[in-house]
Amino acid sequence: xxxxxxxxxxNTVQDLGRSGFRHMGVSVSGxxxxxxxxxxxxxxxxxxxxxxxxxxxxxxxxxxxxDTSIALTGADCxxxxxxxxxxxxxxxxxxxxxxxxxxxxxxxxxxxxxVAGGIDVPLVMGSRSTALRGSFGGxxxxxxxxxxxxxxxxxxxLPLPASGMGIEPPAVAMAAAFPxxxxxxxxxxxxxxxxxxxxxxxxxxxxxxxWQISNQSNRTGxxxxxxxxxxxxxxxxxxxxxxxxxxxxxxxxEPIIQLSDANTAxxxxxxxxxxxxxLWRLGQVxxxxxxxxxxxxxxxxxxxxxxxxxxxxxxxxxxxxxxxxVGL
Length: 328
Known about the structure:
Elements: E1 2-6, E2 12-14, H1 34-44, E3 52-55, E4 60-64, E5 68-76, E6 80-81, E7 84-85, E8 90-94, E9 99-102, E10 107-115, E11 149-150, E12 165-166, H2 170-173, E13 186-192, H3 203-208, E14 211-213, E15 221-225, E16 240-241, E17 246-248, E18 256-258, E19 265-266, E20 270-274, H4 279-282, E21 290-295, H5 298-319
Parallel strand pairs: 13-21
Antiparallel strand pairs: 1-4, 1-11, 2-3, 3-10, 4-9, 5-8, 5-10, 6-7, 6-9, 8-12, 13-20, 14-15, 14-21, 15-18, 16-19, 17-18, 17-20
Helix pairs in contact: 1-5
């Protein structure tokens, strides 16, 4: 069990999300950076979908009420265990009574605390993710508060060494597959979508300009600030199904990227869809930072997905010695 000592609003229990319920108006939820969750769980010998803590407001502090192992992935949050600094993308054993503190990240937006056995909150619609808008899932359907105690699942994996071990972050291990422009701005690949041709006059500018992530951004969606793009004509549209990554253009002309807690339906024109394989990078962009959208296609998305699978396979193979033979 772990106890929350200090936290901010919006820090929650998340896994990879709940699927199969969008027709009922239930959003996916789940982590904003699925590669960080999967990597941390692999290091611990957990199921890759085991629930973790997603931390996006800092400082954050927890106390461990039993011996266990942890993995920290995602943003470099200047972690300290009983005052001793821990590297980013790091796993180690912890003792009962030790306290872990995470601070505002040097890089990235969200940190992930994975624990051996996972956070053992009840399954709701097949997931342990917190759905804040619906007030269900996770820990009592809400964000974490001081004094909360979270149970941990059982594990058959060997404990990590007290000295710790690290993971090469995906941004480093797969740098060639996840580009930035000459200014270091993250480039996200997107495929033109349904109403793309309505914005024909602004196609070049949509792809060329650097969009700033507005402060009016959260797990529901990121609003992009920049020179507006406008349709050639106003059209009446019926609501349609939404998935994370869809880039909609409201009447003001500044796009919105739908994300983990997005509505399941909407009616703004669809300009593009960011490929699923790039969404983890968007989850690590802070409001105020810039991104650039790059025109892509399904073939490139499949190639990037294969590169991610190769990285995960290498990580699984390197972590095999940490697992017990029985059951894992």
